[in-house]
Amino acid sequence: MMDIHQILKQLPHRYPFLLVDRVISLEKGKSIQALKNVTINEPFFNGHFPHRPVMPGVLMLEALAQAAALLAFDTLGVTPDDKTVYYFAGIDGARFKRPVEPGDQLIMDVTLDRMKAGIFKFKGTVRVDGNVACEAELMCTMRTIA
Fold first, then answer.
1. Which pTM does this prediction carry?
2. Which of 9, 29, 59, 114 is spaced 20 to 30 A from 40 at the CA atom?
3. So where's the catalytic machinery, residue-wise (predicted)?
């Protein structure tokens, strides 16, 4: 549905912080499914942990937020510019169910629960091989910067 070139036009993130490789499906105003391929080359694996590389949970949450941003932009029919920033406003109920290691592929499912007063509320789940690795409720907002 959306390849890396289209994602780069929507998200301001770049290596090493772009955490969405492809959008598999997108239903305007409802849901998105995206993926991230996790490789041993990720810079965080050098220190987390050298003897047993594990993807930090906060980066799984960030990957969900990036997928949520793509859904929000599509829902609003906007392409953000250099004056637009998409921020986390809150995270509730974050749970980590299994470690994510090099070679895993994250499948991220995000649904839009509601939009009100510029605040978006999403439910997100990260799966690896069909098993839940992470889930959370995310609140995000867009702001214009000077």
1. 0.96
2. 9
3. 48
Determine whether 5 is an active site residue.
no
The pLDDT of residue 112 is 98
Q: β-strand 31-37 against 22-27: which pairing, if any? A: antiparallel
Cα separation, 119 vs 30, in Å, equals 15
Number of neighbours of residue 144 by Cβ within 10 angstroms: 9
At residue 47, the pLDDT reads 95
**One of 5, 13, 48, 51 is an active-site residue; which one?**
48
Domain residue extents for the chain: 4-144
Separation between Cα atoms, residue 50 and residue 137, nearest integer Å: 30
What are the structure tokens assigned to 85, written together?
Answer: 């920033």
Q: Which CATH architecture has domain 4-144?
A: Roll (3.10)
